[in-house]
Amino acid sequence: MIAGTTIIDADGHIMDWDDLVRPYMLEQYRRRPLFYPLENWDRDLGGTLGKHGLRDVDTRLADMDVQQIDVSVLYPTVGLMLGRVREPEFAAALCRAYNDFVADVCRQSSRLKAVAMVSLQNIPAAVGELRRAVQELGLVGVTLPAHGHGKNLGSPEFHPLYAEAEKLGCPVAIHANGGVGGADVDAQAFDQFICVHTVGHPFPQMFQLTGIVFGGIPELFPQLRLAFLEAGAGWVPYWMDRMDREYKLRAVEAPLLRAKPSEYIRSGRLYFSCEADETTLPTVIQAVGEDVLLYASDYPHWDMDYPDSATELWERNDLSSQVRRKVLGENARGLYRL
Prior knowledge:
alpha/beta
């Protein structure tokens, strides 16, 4: 048992099937047979992995009790494909409908929180939707798709969105879908999902962290909190070194920076979710600090470690009790201002 520790799942997921979101959609879009361009990989191996059919809050809360999770912050599932939606007006309507849907789910239990989705094709509209989602719906952050859209999230076009998130005091989380469709790597080259999924989360995070840091986002928005989710954390020290070397050679191409990339990454404003079984966690903590690593269950997805992920992290003997408590809950409380 994990006694005396409030466990916050910094990256759980809701199953946002089209039929659940459809009642919230604008009338002109409700008849569409599919809301997202989907893939056909057998992610859950014929239903043997994860809880693909999860729909009700009571089951989720019971499973949170089994995992000893006190609060779960919900991210979309099908909505992770948002980057592949091409039509700007439809994408904006889809985000608004999803935000209304997930806010209604969270109203069923104070143990459930959620982040908003916003469309990347129309940033002024995205700013307005973020404001509505936080101020009117009570959502605790916003997630941006890491890939599928061909955009560099460090580009100046996103400055108004980051400025609004900073003003609202809510974090911006970068999340991939773990599949084909990225601007980062040609996963089409693989014909097995084990390969696609291996690269489908970390490579998009490396791609977007690179653009965000060299684009000066942490410098321009010093109060903004950023999170990079579901790629583990072992890649971060390597990427810090690589970015520092590139900056040493070509700082002229990153004129907004006033420090090395690694200094921004260890500033306490960039957070990373980790896996309970990552052997390199002590090294990561040494590189980025103990205040920015997050526990994430990934429930109810096929690759979750249900029901043991929190216990597995708590029982590690290479992390102090203080670090384990921070990763399991205190850091997420700071990220989301819970």
